[in-house]
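Our consortium's second objective concerns turning raw sequence data into structural hypotheses that experimental partners can test. To show how far this objective has progressed, the report includes one record in full. It was chosen at random from the queue rather than selected for favorable results. The single chain below, 274 residues long, was entered without modification.
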Amino acid sequence: MSFWSWLFGGGQGRAQEPAQGRTQGPALSANEQMRQLLARFGALGMEKQAGLQELVGEAGWSGDVAAQSLTFDNGFSCRIQAIGSYSLRNDTWRWAWTNAKAGWPDEALADARAMREYGRSHGLALLLDETDFALERRWVHAIGMTASALCKADAYYLANYGEGILVCTVYSPEVAAKNAAINADISELATISTTLEQLFSNFELNYRKALRCYLKAKGFDLTEDSVAGGSEITARKEGVRVTARFNELGLLQALDGAPAPIPPAAAPEPAPGP
């Protein structure tokens, strides 16, 4: 079974009404709030999943709440933070910081609280809800991607325990090393292209914003220009140039990469003559 198949191959849950909490301006629906979070954090969170997928595959898992850890049947183990849980019985979500019955140590809730603080500072009531609230199942992975990127975790994991799914961030030197090795084996453009293709094919969101946030997080300098039929974003970093073209509807039409030209000042000096 692929990483995404259980989620995108099945039915969808109920749409959510806007959560109650502090907002800035008109209240946004849960779907729109999730799209905003995905545009800001989704690509970076998705990119970091490759290493964990290689290490874990389809291995079963067991958890230790007191030790804040997951151990897999293949022997791999990692430290985790609890983000929240999704009920498969009634398609509802609850943030871990509101669920005292789960028994998580206070230090295991730091990432969930960091997401709550982000919600407060950015007017996203979804991140502030203290109750069980309805949420479409397709957003469970999106919460994991957001938490992983926002909290600078090494990955996220969806621990399916039958009646529900625990979403947790993963902290593991092995995962970080595996991600570094994977990225070293392919070009940065290939990593970017694969990540954006996966994100854009599975979620509707502001694609231009998602690309801009992703490339900025990866250290690129960006410029954007209007072109016939849409716009073009050019990103440069350490000898790499990426060009993305969008149509008038904001849909990605092309993504190209090439070595960046060496600035004249950085060109090598000619060898002295005889």
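The partners drew two points from this record. The helical segments are 5-8, 30-47, 49-56, 110-122, 139-150, 173-185, 188-202, 207-217. The radius of gyration is 21 Å. Both points have been shared with the crystallography group to help prioritize constructs.
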